[in-house]
Amino acid sequence: GESVGLHLPTLSVQEGDNSIINCAYSNSASDYFIWYKQESGKGPQFIIDIRSNMDKRQGQRVTVLLNKTVKHLSLQIAATQPGDSAVYFCAENPYSGSARQLTFGSGTQLTVLP
Amino acid sequence: EAQVTQNPRYLITVTGKKLTVTCSQNMNHEYMSWYRQDPGLGLRQIYYSMNVEVTDKGDVPEGYKVSRKEKRNFPLILESPSPNQTSLYFCASSYERGRPQHFGDGTRLSIL
Question: Residue B29 has what pLDDT?
Answer without folding.
Answer: 95
